Amino acid sequence: MLRLFLRKYRTMILASVFFFYLGCCLTINFTRIECAFKTSSKNELETRVQSLSKAQYVVIILSSPNNEPKRDAIRATWGNFVNNIFVENGEIINKWNHTRISKQSQQNVVKLLFVVGTLGLSGTKADKLGNEQKRYKDFLILENVEDSYKNLSLKLLNALSWISENLKDMKYVIKCDDDSFVRIDLIVKDLDAFAPSMNAPKLNKFVTFKEHLPTYKGLYWGYFNGHAEVFLTGKWQEKGWFLCDNYLPYALGGGYVISRRIVDYIAQNMDFLSSYNAEDVSMGVWTASLNAINRVHDVRFDTEWKSRGCKDNMLIRHKQTTSDMFQMYKSLAQSNGEKLCNTEELHRKTYFYSWNVLPSSCCKRN
Q1: According to the per-residue pLDDT averaged within each range, which of 15-24, 98-107, 125-134 is highest?
Q2: What is the reported pTM?
Q3: Where are the alpha helices (DSSP H) in 215-288?
Q4: Confidence category of residue 46, pLDDT binned at 50, 70, 90
Q5: Can you state the percent helix, strand and coil of the chain, rounding each to 5?
Q6: What is the spatial distance between Cα 183 and Cα 212, in angstroms, rounded to a whole number?
Q7: 232 phi and psi, to 5 degrees?
Q8: What is the DSSP string of 120-174?
Q9: What whole-number distance in Å separates Cα of residue 272 and Cα of residue 215?
């Protein structure tokens, strides 16, 4: 009976054995490939950290997985300004149209990182983001953070923690959004020349200080607001806010600068820090009690909820479309970096922050 069964189903049995062994071989090989991929990714990350480790100025751009067109616009426009900054005879030099300078002069002084959270991201979106990373290698991917508006402060905390741990030569972090146009070259030029005191005749017509001290333990530089009302409803609702009737003074999130000691302080205490929906509000709270931090309000930061217009001396312009970015980049290219705007114009008044009054009276527009 058994012999008859084997003869009748011989082909099927042989085929089953063949596919069983084939399946085993494929499983082993795919396991090896997966392990090799993980090793490669780990090595690639280590190599990338090494290439970033010498950066003195780090630009972190909060982005979201779906915003590839905005990232591409930045890469094609103001992201190129990092190439205006190079080292010559041991000094940082800022020179427009530096492309004729030998590549050996480039010391990776400035690095750009798009910060994106990928927790819970669908396979298709994750694959697309992975391909973008392979092409440009300019992401800081936070695998433990879900990318959403309510997690902006968490994204910032994790980004600063990573920078503090891995980028030991970093002096300053420039934080911005992916709808901001940033004159990295001019910001770094001023930082290199005047930070952390930022007390120079060249800057006096643009800045106001909380206090003048002989020495500072850090720098917090941007366009400050001290009388913003707390959002109690809507998208920006802050259910956990309890400190006072208004937000504490903070530099608006379209773009600001913080120094290494602030970054390290936040990274070392991130488990104890309260977070709010708006990451710029959170930064104001995190730094509120820090002593001898030079808080500098600068009217060249156009970082409010709506752009004030365009002036050639602006360092950051928030709420810009990709078309706006290409237009400003074209204007700068045609003027050797002198003209940011086709036509200078202001749609809204600015203000100089009054540090010697209560925050409710801080921000009277001119």
Answers
A1: 125-134
A2: 0.85
A3: 260-268, 279-287
A4: low
A5: 40, 20, 40
A6: 26
A7: -105, -15
A8: T--HHHHHHHHHHHHHH--EEEETTS--SGGGHHHHHHHHHHHHHHH-TT--EEE
A9: 28
